[in-house]
Amino acid sequence: MQIKYTKSFLNKLEDLFSESDYILRYEKGNFKSGYCVLKEQKIVIINKFFDTEGKINCLVDLIKNLDLNSKSFTDKNKIFYLELKQTVLAL
């Protein structure tokens, strides 16, 4: 899957989190990786000062590493989620 660094692609990623068990928040922080995951509370915090590309890279990385419950996803988002899980980021 080709990663597009656009606002609409970012919205698709945010939509995945809204349908999952995790809560996505943008806040200022001093995160070494650009994000923080509170697994017990199922909260993901992304550095709000990142540009669109940085936010997308963080969210794709999180989607690949977290086990989101795809049972609550719409059919369209299930397909999108499975494609993202197989995507390799080129840094």
Task: Provide keyphrases for this structure.
single chain, 91 residues, alpha+beta, 3-stranded mixed beta sheet, 3 helices, 3 strands
Low-confidence stretches: none
Secondary-structure element pattern, one letter each = HEEEHH
**How many beta-strand elements?**
3
**Basic shape:** globular
Can you offer a commentary on this structure?
This protein has one domain. 42% of the residues lie in helices and 15% in strands. It has three helices and three strands. A three-stranded mixed β-sheet has the order 1-3-2. It is globular and about 35 Å long. The two termini are 15 Å apart. The mean pLDDT is 87.
Ordered list of secondary-structure elements with their pairings:
Blueprint: H1 7-19, E1 23-27, E2 35-38, E3 43-47, H2 52-65, H3 75-85
Parallel strand pairs: 1-3
Antiparallel strand pairs: 2-3
Helix pairs in contact: 1-2
In short:
The protein contains three helices and three strands, in the order H-E-E-E-H-H. The chain is α+β, with helices and mostly antiparallel strands and 91 residues long.
